[in-house]
Automatic annotation (TrEMBL), chain A:
<dbReference type="InterPro" id="IPR051689">
    <property type="entry name" value="Sterol_desaturase/TMEM195"/>
</dbReference>
<feature type="transmembrane region" description="Helical">
    <location>
        <begin position="131"/>
        <end position="148"/>
    </location>
</feature>
<dbReference type="GO" id="GO:0012505">
    <property type="term" value="C:endomembrane system"/>
</dbReference>
<dbReference type="GO" id="GO:0016020">
    <property type="term" value="C:membrane"/>
</dbReference>
<keyword id="KW-1133">Transmembrane helix</keyword>
<keyword id="KW-0472">Membrane</keyword>
<dbReference type="InterPro" id="IPR006694">
    <property type="entry name" value="Fatty_acid_hydroxylase"/>
</dbReference>
<dbReference type="GO" id="GO:0050479">
    <property type="term" value="F:glyceryl-ether monooxygenase activity"/>
</dbReference>
<dbReference type="GO" id="GO:0008610">
    <property type="term" value="P:lipid biosynthetic process"/>
</dbReference>
TrEMBL record, chain B:
<keyword id="KW-0238">DNA-binding</keyword>
<dbReference type="Pfam" id="PF21783">
    <property type="entry name" value="YNCE"/>
</dbReference>
<dbReference type="InterPro" id="IPR051200">
    <property type="entry name" value="Host-pathogen_enzymatic-act"/>
</dbReference>
<keyword id="KW-0732">Signal</keyword>
<feature type="signal peptide">
    <location>
        <begin position="1"/>
        <end position="20"/>
    </location>
</feature>
<protein>
    <submittedName>
        <fullName>DNA-binding beta-propeller fold protein YncE</fullName>
    </submittedName>
</protein>
<dbReference type="InterPro" id="IPR048433">
    <property type="entry name" value="YNCE-like_beta-prop"/>
</dbReference>
<dbReference type="InterPro" id="IPR015943">
    <property type="entry name" value="WD40/YVTN_repeat-like_dom_sf"/>
</dbReference>
<feature type="domain" description="YNCE-like beta-propeller">
    <location>
        <begin position="12"/>
        <end position="313"/>
    </location>
</feature>
Length: 319, 331
């Protein structure tokens, strides 16, 4: 395993020293030197994730689809979302806006001498079990993500943005990153503030993001495969999450208000929102105004999503 | 059980030499520190520490080394002979860099994220004064008389001189892009300041902060380590080199490639090797000083930053150091 780690760090260092560090040095941005190095790793993880989707998940979607693909053109825009997100373009925009806010919170807390305790300091035996520690932080993070997701469906103004993620009629492994930029910003803000207060440290993010995002891409894949009766209750898979993307019908109105969990179905089982079945259903949102997203490209969808958001929030402001 | 352990320790003591050299490395992004053995060039143990540990320093009496965790606002004191944890000093806010005045009376910390410099009385680590400075205070130096401390301010490109007894600003002068490492030369008349935003080292007058000289070195000149009264090592983070500076002639007499954003350095007690943290490569480079050649590197944790080389007593160092149950601070 050492050679793999060496190759990974060697590549990261080469990319950084060749492309990033000269730019930082030239523009006198040296205070970002070490953070930018970590950003290169984020970029590399994105490349790996794109490769896993393209080379492993897509062939499986072709071999064992859960639903027959009716319109092969529709997933194309989701690839744009995936590339923009996984290679760091959207995260960079989100970071530039979110950083001053989360940084100010961090500085205020630190100025008061408040350092959120790490779980290891409360349970020292965890120091000898890094995998258990990782799972605890992963679960905490996913727990927060579950409740954010419920809010995305529960508040009409947030659903106005999040419905863009649901409007895709052909959900594939590329769909995970199909999000409104403002939605990503809000989710990031809440998750970072949550992480700050429970003591998730930057080092944990790398593994949480890598493992978590791969599971989320997989859970969107149009693949009729499960992890078995027990496995499907331990980890979110396509059968579980595609029900969350199913089109509402008179018989099953707002069926997408189930199976919110991103990684661990436990939260849905605990809070009564889990639903297990293997029926193949059409995907999308029944509201024609939202379904119209399917005729738009990346920019068009962003504009449409923002209009819906403004319409949902303005009456509130006026009233 | 205890007797058995003692017997084992005695046995291991009889087969090893009476003294060993251990290197403590702070893995800043792993919240841990590594203990390396100089002879075998191996990582012996890796132990948890508070979040974002960056620098470490010997106490004035040399009995302990303080490992500073910036996020958890604490200094963990290790016994320099046995490497066991002795105590923890808490409520030292954002201790990024830290330094003791030559007379040992003052401890100065630079709060890198919170933009202030704190002056503590070493006795009891009592805060004497907090001075807010704009912005990103990083490295610290002192005059020989222990009256003044000098702090570089990376983001605003300045160096500030603070009076230790009154905790007031003597001067605060702009010098160049991203000043980081700072040392007072033995003559007590010249400060060397490394410019991380440029490719040079400045000579600065400690009386008023005026720049009296400039020496081109490598890209992103960053950190110093004294070799002897005359020669200083300097790490260049973008250039990925370590330069050897003759401070009498004010010229670079040697330069050696050290890949991976070299940062902090220390010299072995026999003066033969320079150990350098390679921040990006998660390694410590070993340089043969006579040959000015890199002769090896040791794998450590993520983003290794500060390091120190200690003479330890192998018979007294426990095989597995305790990671938890730390005694409260004596203060
Ligand atoms: Zn949803």
């Amino acid at each position: 395993m050492h050679w793999l780690l060496d190759a990974w760090i060697g590549t990261q260092t080469w990319l950084f020293e060749t492309f990033v560090s000269p730019v930082l040095f030239h523009f006198n941005l040296m205070e970002w030197f070490d953070d930018a190095f970590d950003a290169v790793e984020f970029f590399m993880l994105g490349v790996v994730q794109i490769l896993v989707i393209a080379l492993l998940m897509r062939p499986l979607e072709k071999r064992r689809p859960m639903e027959n693909v009716k319109n092969r053109r529709l997933p194309a825009v989701d690839r744009v979302y995936t590339v923009l997100s996984k290679l760091g373009v959207v995260p960079l925009v989100v970071f530039v806006i979110a950083y001053p806010i989360t940084n100010e919170i961090e500085l205020q807390m630190r100025g008061l001498g408040i350092a959120p305790p790490r779980i290891e300091s409360l349970m020292p035996w965890l120091h000898d079990h890094p995998l258990v520690t990782f799972l605890i932080y992963f679960a905490l993070y996913d727990f927060a993500a579950y409740w954010i997701h419920r809010a995305q469906h529960g508040f009409s103004w947030w659903w106005a943005l999040h419905s863009l993620h649901h409007s895709q009629r052909e959900v594939t492994a590329w769909t995970d990153d199909r999000n409104h930029v403002l939605d990503s910003l809000l989710v990031t803000l809440v998750l970072v503030i949550f992480s700050q207060s429970v003591g998730v440290q930057p080092g944990d993010y790398v593994s949480i993001l890598m493992v978590g995002r791969l599971i989320e891409s997989w859970s969107h894949a149009n693949v009729d495969l499960g992890f078995g009766r027990i496995g499907d209750r331990l980890l979110v898979g396509p059968r579980f999450h595609r029900l969350h993307h199913a089109l509402g019908t008179p018989a099953e109105p707002r069926i997408y208000d189930h199976n919110y969990a991103l990684v661990f179905p436990l939260w849905d089982m605990l809070f009564g929102t889990a639903r297990y079945d293997r029926k193949a259903r059409p995907m999308g949102v029944e509201d024609p105004a939202i379904d119209a997203d399917n005729d738009l490209g990346w920019l068009g969808q962003q504009v449409a999503g923002f209009r819906r958001f403004a319409a949902a929030i303005l009456p509130r402001l006026a009233g | 059980m205890k007797k058995f352990a003692f017997a084992l320790l005695a046995l291991s003591a009889s087969v090893t030499t009476a003294q060993a050299e251990s290197i403590i490395v702070l893995n800043s992004e792993d919240a841990s520190y590594s203990i390396l053995d100089r002879a075998t060039r191996m990582e012996v143990q890796r132990l948890p520490l508070g979040r974002e540990p960056h620098h470490l320093i010997l106490t004035p009496n040399g009995k302990e080394v303080l490992l500073a965790s910036t996020f958890t606002n604490e200094l963990v004191a290790l016994d320099t002979r046995t490497l066991e944890r002795r105590y923890v000093v808490r409520d030292i806010i954002d201790p990024y860099q830290l330094g003791f005045s030559p007379d040992g009376k003052w401890m100065v910390t630079a709060a890198n994220r919170l933009d202030h410099v704190d002056i503590y009385q070493t006795d009891g680590y009592k805060l004497a004064g907090r001075i807010f400075l704009d912005s990103i205070p990083s490295h610290i130096a002192f005059d020989a008389a222990s009256r003044t401390t000098f702090v570089t301010l990376q983001e605003s490109g300045r160096v500030a001189a603070l009076d230790l007894a009154t905790q007031t600003i003597k001067w605060n002068v702009e010098v160049g892009k991203a000043p980081a490492g700072i040392v007072m030369l033995p003559d007590d008349k010249r400060l060397l300041v490394a410019l991380t935003g440029e490719e040079s080292v400045l000579t600065v007058d400690p009386k008023d902060g005026s720049v009296i000289g400039r020496l081109p070195t490598g890209k992103a000149a960053h950190n110093f380590r004294v070799k002897d009264n005359r020669y200083y090592f300097l790490s260049n983070r973008v250039g990925s080199t370590v330069s050897l500076i003759d401070t009498q002639e004010m010229k670079v007499v040697a330069s050696i490639k050290v890949p991976g954003g070299p940062d902090d350095m220390d010299i072995t007690p026999d003066g033969k090797e320079l150990w350098v943290t390679q921040r990006f490569l998660r390694r410590i480079a070993i340089i043969d000083i006579a040959e000015m050649k890199m002769i090896g590197s040791v794998r450590v944790g993520k983003s290794p930053h500060g390091l120190i080389i200690l003479k330890t007593d192998p018979a007294a160092v426990p095989n597995k150091l305790r990671s938890a149950s730390i005694e409260p601070s004596p203060k």
